[in-house]
């Protein structure tokens, strides 16, 4: 019988391991589910709200954020030109004042604009 919490978790994970040659269970959503469970804590919710509030301060960034998160639920990436045509704002210009924060949330390149975090994906 495991005595420490670490041994209990290790025992659970290793006992859940598939037998040799058996199909591997998809656990990609485990981390996302754990993170979402953490939001039940008021202190954590307040810290996340404070950290992300600059993204919601202006209408263009809210619209870009909403559209990008909708695409992220289907693992989609969009071009900056597409964002510009739908929202009417250049995503790079809109997020330039929030560059450090936006790089935590978005994966950007010259032709892609995508939510970085698996928390925002659905599978």
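^ Assign residues to that structure.
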């Amino acid at each position: 019988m495991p005595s420490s919490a670490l041994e209990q978790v290790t025992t659970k994970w290793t006992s859940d391991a598939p037998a040799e040659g058996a199909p591997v269970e998809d656990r990609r959503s485990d981390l996302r589910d754990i993170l979402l469970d953490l939001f039940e804590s008021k202190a954590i919710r307040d810290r996340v709200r404070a950290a992300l509030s600059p993204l919601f301060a202006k209408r263009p960034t809210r619209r870009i954020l909403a559209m990008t998160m909708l695409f992220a639920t289907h693992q989609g990436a969009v071009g900056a030109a597409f964002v510009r045509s739908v929202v009417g704002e250049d995503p790079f210009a809109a997020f330039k004042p929030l560059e450090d924060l936006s790089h935590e949330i978005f994966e950007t390149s010259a032709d892609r604009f995508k939510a970085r975090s698996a928390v925002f994906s659905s599978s």
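The radius of gyration is 19 Å.
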